[in-house]
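Complex 151.
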Amino acid sequence: MNDLRELYQEVILDHSRNPRNFGRLEGANHEAQGNNPLCGDQITLFVRTEDGVVTDISFEGAGCAISTASASMMTEALKGRSIEDAQKIFEQFHGMVTGDPLRESQNAQNLGKLSVFAGVREFPVRVKCASLAWHTFKAAIEESVEPVSTE
Ligand code: ZN
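Predicted structure with zinc ion bound:
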């Protein structure tokens, strides 16, 4: 587990121990479940949108520090954003953690705090942990009826 130590930066530890926006959201009009069977991460995401804006967002679930911190930081990053902006942030985040060279260069500065997850691209299993909440968000917004799996 030594190679993972540098991933567990302070901000990730903080969010994994004290996840923000944790718990069921009353009045959510979008909901989706995500699973990462490789690690055992599970998440249920609740989103309330109004006039194309993410007015509130929360999550429940259990998982590793990376998946919990990623979900927590995602809810902070997306609350108050338009759905259009949220989808752009999703694309940027996904490009960063998967190391997509076409999208990588312009990403880090746009993502702010979320750039702490850039290190996961070295660890394919952890990429799934870090991106689970984001795929689940996308599914919630698109109102997919199928549960999300990273498999
Ligand atoms: Zn995980």
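Residues 77 and 114 are 8 Å apart (CA to CA).
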